[in-house]
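Example with several molecule types.
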Amino acid sequence: MANGAQTTAGAEITVRGLEKKFGQLKAVDDLSLDIPSGEFLALLGPSGSGKSTVLMMLAGFEVPTAGAITIDGRDCTRLTPQKRNIGMVFQHYSLFPHLSVIDNVAFPLKMRGASRADRRRRAAEALEVVRLEGYGDRMPSQLSGGQRQRVALARAIVYQPRLLLMDEPLSALDKNLREEMQLEIKRLHSELGVTVVFVTHDQGEALTMADRVAILRGGRIQQISAARELYERPANLFSAGFIGEMNMIPAQWDGSGLMLAQGDRLAPPEAALIGAVPSGVATLAIRPERLRVSAPDAPGALAATLEEVVYAGAGTLLIARLADGTEIRARVPSAGLPRLAEGERIGLTFDPDALLVYGEAAA
Amino acid sequence: MSGKLTPGRLMLMAYVYLVLIFVLAPIVVILPMAFSEPDYLTFPPEGFTFKWFGAFFGNARWMDASVFSLKIAVLTSIVTVVVGTMATYALMRGAGRLGTLFQGLLIAPIVVPHIALAVALYLFFRQTGLSGTVTGYVMAHAIIAMPFVVFTVAAALSSVDATLEDAAMSCGASRFDAFRLVTLPLILPNVLSGALFAFILSFDEPVISFFLAGIRDKTLPRMMFDNIEQNLTPVIPAIAVLLTGVSILVLVCAAVLRRMAQSRSIPAEEG
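Resulting structure tokens for the full complex:
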């Protein structure tokens, strides 16, 4: 491995009560967060959720209206960007168009007063790390989008920062390139040991790349947890609906069982309850891939009317409707699936551990 | 446009050529007179000589006026470009609410008749003792040239991504270094072409110079005025030839700079 990829311990970040107001609008609202050294954290949310504003405050381009940011024990809340020693990758790469690739990568070293020979050597090493050796003398305009993003990465890691910030760095790339770069960035993260905060609105990207994912809405963190927990036990209905597909069926919880509008009574296990579920209006959530097709009168099956069958090779998507009008989707393996006609009555069965029950307050 | 010669198209072409002739004819008429033998203006010219150029370069008063004009033009272009670039940067990248107002003020001289500006400056400079001084000339010419610098620099700045400076700062550059090392090199061709425009505007400027001229120091256009009033010799067309040459040279330089700027900018988005 090249010397440019020396492992450096990642920065440890503490965010307390962070707030950013633009006029009357609170873009970030009382947000607290601990990022341990070397973690890859994704900030995931729809546009306007405040995820980019959080990143800009970490980078120093926005000054918080309240709260504190500590990086490695040092208060950085009001520190200017150039004093934070952070590597940053921007959405549109932001390469300097008048400088060659090697000069772009060497720019941070120049700002740090490194000698010319040292700059060239370390920039060449960083280019090697992103697999662009030999591209140093080209101009950014001569590179493809993926190559430009690699140069931006090399520029961000060349001075071995302990923290790397990325603002939707892959959103301008096409799908294949994006998947390749996801793996590339993950590889870099594990090679360098740097702490990474990655902003994205692409849930697949967040789940694939990050150690932990923080879901933001309205400037607040909805849930922060590892990818698997996020998918399998979303903390509330927003997270449940935001990550992946989720069937949400209105129901009544009576303290021990769940009554669906069409009359079924279910007794979910204790583990299915997310947080405190008071008696009254509740929501039953179940992932489409956890449903199986059975006869409509099979024991424990939910009876539904099939509306659409979408064959997609390995899997088939079934769209059905419960008696009360709730749409329910099932993703089942195509192999072994009986011939189903639209309008047919079917049953949908599930394992008890596929159920999630949310109380009224968990919206 | 390789269409047929429709009547409309013919009329348009006729119109365009008429305008061109109208604009260029005086220059075409005056230039040959510079090479005419007799010591009065004649058209068509008689004979062929370079003696009027010699008369210009050999005359200390013409030379003094030329050097004085050159000095003012160089200073004007420096002042205009420094102030104009800073102002345009502030207008386009700053968050001030008064931006529109200041932009209006900066480009207003383009709509105010120069004669009105000249009278106002004359009254102002007479009271402040700036009349006839280099400082006075440079200030007055900078006001006239400012809109051209603001326009060319604004055009360049609007095509430079503002996040490039953020990127530079995230790399450890100070705000000033981010401007100096990233934005400035990218807008430099336009800044220089703005400087050239300011230079030529100042060097050729007759109206304000007419009002501001002192007894001793006169600009070249002012000297030409005086000379026309006293004795109209072919030295005037000779100077016209030289000034036209300088203008063409400057315009060519500006065009080359702009070509450079275009080839440098990278297409923003592509796979």
